[in-house]
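Consider the following assembly input.
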Amino acid sequence: MQAPSSTAGNAIVRIGNRQALRDPLWLRCALIGVAVGFIVLFLCLPLGLVLYQAFAKGWQAYFQALSEPDTVAALRLTLIVALATVPLNTIFGIAAAWAITRFEFPGKSLLTTLIDLPFSVSPVISGLIFVLLFGSQGWFGPWLSAHQIKIMFATPGIILVTVFVTFPFVARELIPLMQEMGNEEEEAALSLGAGGWKTFFLITLPNIKWALLYGVLLCNARAMGEFGAVSVVSGHIRGLTDTLPLHVEVSYNDYDAVGAFASASILAGLAVVTLVLKSFLEWKAR
Amino acid sequence: MTQSSIMPGFRPALAFTLGYLTLIVLIPLSSLLFTSLQLDWNEYLDIMIDRRVLAAFRISFLTSLAASVIAGLFGFVIAWVMVRYPFAGKRVLDALIDLPFALPTAVAGVVLATIYQPGGIVGKWLIDNFGLQVAYTPLGIVVALIFIGIPFVVRTIEPVLQEFDTTMEEAAACLGASRLQVFAKIILPNLFPAVLTGVSLAFARGIGEYGSVIFIAGNLPYVSEIAPLLIVIKLEQYQYAGATSIAFSMLIVSFLLLLGLNLLQRRLRKRSGQI
Amino acid sequence: MSIRLIDISKNFGQFAALHNINLDIPAGELVALLGPSGCGKTTLLRIIAGLETPDQGRVLLKDEDITGQHASRRGIGFVFQHYALFRHMTVFDNIAFGLRVKPRRERPAETEITKKAHALLELVQLDWLADRFPDQLSGGQRQRIALARALAVAPEVLLLDEPFGALDASVRKDLRLWLRNLHQELNVTSIFVTHDQEEAMEVASQVVVLNQGRIEQQGSPDAIYDNPVNAFVSKFIGQTNILHVEQNDAAWLKSAGLVFENPQGIYAHVRPHDIDIEKMSATSASPLILKDWQHLGSSIRIELVNPQLEGSGGSLYAEMSNRRFKQLNLNRGDRVAAHIRQAHWFD
């Protein structure tokens, strides 16, 4: 489940000296105090602590933890999963947005609802449904093992479940935007003799690029960070099917704090980069 | 939008969309549905009325409810402050609200556990001063779920607050209402649907949440073991029927919750004549 | 209740919205604050209501200084341009709001509130809408409900911000007269803001013309129309021909009867109905040609040109009754003479 995209921080209601809208000074101070206190305690502190713990035993320990073969393997797997997942869902997002916003057909609103479905499924259940399909007792389990194909507890399973979990990200950014844009510009280009692809690359893409990047960014962040769903299908084979988030869990449960937080720091860095780019894209899209 | 005969690519785009959707989403999800339908009714009941399962459901619901309500309260204050008061450093703080979306849940989980464990920064302070242990108790679950839920509330209320017709507040003031009366009689009733939506989104997410909870929860059966964890445990023991039953029940409950919310929103809007 | 504004100034950042406004409004008047958009009229209204604070100056209500008083304690009714009806309340609850938020000691009993709200609904002739929500009303209905809501607390002064601005032209006409009649019935000191001079002249008993944060003129509609104090007011109120004495051909102005042996300025402002026309023979010395005319309903507007003049200075508009126009029996291209009965002079 995903909250609505943020539009905040930029459009503020201007109070100025509209007297009737002004809250008393003590109240303003108190509320700002509560809000800032909450954000610092609940959001800044965890972020800072990741770095603190990662470097608790110094730079050397940090880089040693990061260069451990298992960590490197986990990072590699995480990148592979993201590289496979993000392009797939991006292409899907564009195709779905094109079909839904440029044409009328029966069942359109049902299709739009179905696209959002993965967001309302618990990560653990997302993992479970793929176990039910491809696990040893699953629908295709016997057939797969007879043909020596490994999906569960292997990279294909991890990729599949990640694709499921990040499925709606790009589409749900593009659909409302392209809906609002309308198709007059594209029709103009087509009537001037441009081909379909040319129209897409010269007219559509420049108009949707910031929203597209926004969707790709969120999709990527989730693909690299997904834990619950991947945890169910991965089998936790060290150095083989552990992604970076799973590696954080394993190290933490082994009381290897520096190891856990060194890996966590990479993911936290990813989160910060995501937030910065997100703010940038929101600013750009305006 | 009108159907345009010259727009190209309808068939390939729709075919790809439907094919991909079926392959990635519909077939996997239907596996859960069909596996559930194959379950024997008695077997299903046996699984569900197991004391440990019931306890897990109760814990998941109560902690999610508490966390979403608290997140609703703080989220409202944060959204209000972000939209209404200018102050230094606001943009950075506002961007940070989305951290729980961007930070992988496993990272959130281990960090929160580290902060609130009895020797952790906040955990030690709470125990020393109030004798309150957060980590490895249901309270820890609530803390993790507040973290997860806060952006849902803030990001749902913020746009509504930005669009809010502030002249209603001025009109009420001219009619003699104090600021408190304006808040209680004008602002709150108009924002309530958005608050309710935000809280429900946080609640629904909280029930299914796994990664950020399991580290801080301690996972004691009957005390701090959540329903999603039970699915994982059943799967590890190859009890597919058990895992499926719990998952199916969770989905039914989430579905009913969303349905109820939609009906409530509709009634609220109907009451103010917007339908 | 009389209102007195003393030396009010207001800046928004670099922009000076109001400069040293001094204004007296006697009790019982219906005053229009008239001016082009951005002239500061709405800001002035909001300062009187206490919705904005002036940077400088004082607001007196019946000789009592209320400059620092909160809007909720001024007892001034305000009708917002877009009505600001409480959309989560029924029409009835909207009107009852002001009574229900009174402190317990002053609050009337609920039966009293019900009675009063229904009386107000009857006053605005919308009693049958009591249970509707604002979203279900038309623009004109919302306007009247907003007025009833403001009147519920028996305000000593009623302020209306562009009361007809958001309405269709036909509804607007009806509501203007209705508001004027209502004011005569209630006799509460009222100020409304408008950018429409016709509206101000038709509804108000006093008109205050504002421009760029300054008061240009204050007076009855008659006084302002007949004796504009400067070029801005003359141009803003009603139709005016502006003649530049040095640019325009002195000969034809003279032939038109304009007396400028003793000009009191460079520009002569002449109302169209202050110009009379006479049909001339084709060989006459008059340089004016009748170019075209338009029916304005009860009167006819005639466009006269001087072909010998280059540029825009050569058109003159005259207005006369239908009957007079028919008597003249004019055709396009006819040579005519014009007689100017009266002019206002400005630099």
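Chain B touches chain A through 109 residues (CB under 8 Å). Ask yourself how this observation constrains the way the partners meet.
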